Amino acid sequence: MKTVLYGLFRWLAVATAIAFLFLTGAGNVARNADPQKVFESVCLSADMTNLQPASNQMIKRLYDINPADYEFCMLYYPKTNMDVDELLLVKFTDRSQEEALRNAAQSRLNGQKKAFEGYGAEQMGLLGSHSLTESRSGFFLFAVNPNDAEIRSAFVKALEEESSCR
Amino acid sequence: MPLSELFFVFIFLPAAIILYRLTPDRLRNALLLLLSLFFIAWGSLSDVILIALCIAFNYFTALELDHLRRSDSRILKKLVLFSGIAVNAGMLIFFKYFVFLINNVCAVIGTEFSFTVPKVPVGISFFTFSAISCLCDVAKGDENAVRNPLDFALYIAFFAKITSGPIVKFRDMARQLNDRAMTAELTESGMKLFIIGLSKKVIMAGCLGFLFDGIKAQDPASLSVAGAWTGALAYSLMLYYDFSGYSDMAIGLGKIFGFSFAKNFDHPYSSVSMTDFWRRWHISLGAWFRDYVYIPLGGSRVGRARNIFNLSVVWLLTGLWHGANWTFVVWGIYHLLLLLLEKFVLKGLLDRIPSLLRAAMTFLLAVIGWTVFFSDNIAYAGSYLLRMIGIGGSGLADRTGLFYLNGGVFLLVCAIIGATSLPSAALGKLDRLMERRIDKRAAAQLMQPVTALLLALLMLGCTAFMISDTVSSFLYAQF
What we know:
The complex is a heterodimer.
Chain A: H1 2-23, H2 35-45, E1 51-53, H3 56-63, E2 72-78, E3 86-91, H4 95-116, H5 121-129, E4 131-136, E5 139-144, H6 148-162
Antiparallel strand pairs in A: 1-2, 2-3, 3-5, 4-5
Helix pairs in contact in A: 2-6, 4-5
Chain B: H1 6-22, H2 28-43, H3 45-71, H4 74-109, H5 124-140, H6 149-157, H7 159-162, H8 170-173, H9 184-216, H10 225-256, H11 274-280, H12 283-297, H13 304-321, H14 326-345, H15 347-351, H16 355-374, H17 378-388, H18 399-419, H19 422-437, H20 440-467
Helix pairs in contact in B: 2-3, 2-6, 3-4, 3-5, 3-6, 4-5, 9-10, 9-18, 9-20, 10-16, 10-17, 10-18, 12-13, 13-14, 14-16, 16-17, 19-20
């Protein structure tokens, strides 16, 4: 009798763990989502005039993340120090990477706000009202751009077209 | 919450010690468990739920194994043990290796499929190994199952060891759960060890990490020999100070709360062979693999071919335990080959080489291994190793390499000396000398304020480093 009860309880724990994992989003499958295509779709909706592509070293310097840790990592950053427009798209594989990316984007945003606080009204406006952090289907997007709403829609649409979730 | 965070050091730990002192003996485990759950929840609430479910599963499995062992149901016992190990290993594989496996299978069959796994629970590599240790020990009869679920939960989730070990075997901790003392001497020596560990982690590993990060950010194709070696040495020493520092902190915390955990590092860079190195580096992991994988497979009391197979299994798993990347597999194979070479080919020859030269050779071989270990992929490792022997790159020394070498040479020399057994040997000699000149009690009285001052200075230095936020995140946490 004891053995049956112990067995019942332990498999109940396993079943609960599986249900918990399922409910918290495990298996968020993004099939055949080509990150390059997602990035191109996002770029089409963004104002890219003030932006330039960043090297891996620059990504490390600005965001303190290692692009080699991610399946795909692309950053466009301002051509001059007086601009704050930015576009970062990363394809990640697990939730800890997602958390690291969120922290990296937040500290980049805070750093920029600190740099322009008190004198860069226009830049502060962009950083305050036109920054975007979005994560879905294994993709993380961070953008500071006047077209932030369009960028978000393009990102969501690109993922819906490129992938089928769950 | 890392053990080297200001909040932990100045708020959580003092509060935990005061509460522990004020709590009656019978409620102390419950308090430690509550503190541990808070510690885990600080990072992520979902981790608490997953760890609680893991605890529940293993608690009932251990009770069932205990019951079956007493009733002599051998086949059923084996089945329950196997299912228990499979669930723990399955959990580890799902969180740590599933994406790696899927990606490799997809690469082989030429298709694309991406799968997102939830955030890896904190300390999964450590607490699943603790759980497996418990099941094996109970099944074998080395230890009885713990009846009190709170005590069992504390064994798995104790905040001192859950994030980064050491991997304490069940048989080494089970009795301490209900039979331990908290003496002033233990608390004092625990605090000392904690501060020493903290300074190893925060000051030494922090500075070495700063040096290494600068070199790692360079394109490996343009590195010079000087730059590549500076980077490799900085990483090797940083890893040692980082992990041994963290282990010292965990062992010190254990002492503060009355637990006695065996040491996890014993001056590995003073080793005279790779076999010796692995007796001194991450001792708890090596002991775990020895007791729960190597010996059950037959250990060395089998034929040569079977022994090589057993060692291969252990080293493949040791490599993979550190992470889901081919670089870790290669690193494991590299150490397997070195150990096989020592065991079967160079056995007599090594003894004839002077020990200083053997120690230098062992250190060099370990550094080469760490180069593969820190690389993002095999191509990077290959390119970096070629730069170390001067093939390609910017020759023997370029401006960047010399900049890092000049800036880091003093730190590297200090770190190498500190990593060997020389400082503790010198301190031991000083102790003996003082005891000979003046009596033991007077020597201890003389040393007390000196030690207190040194520890206070170390703590001050650590605080400054923690505030300036130069602390790198714990390296082994990612494994």
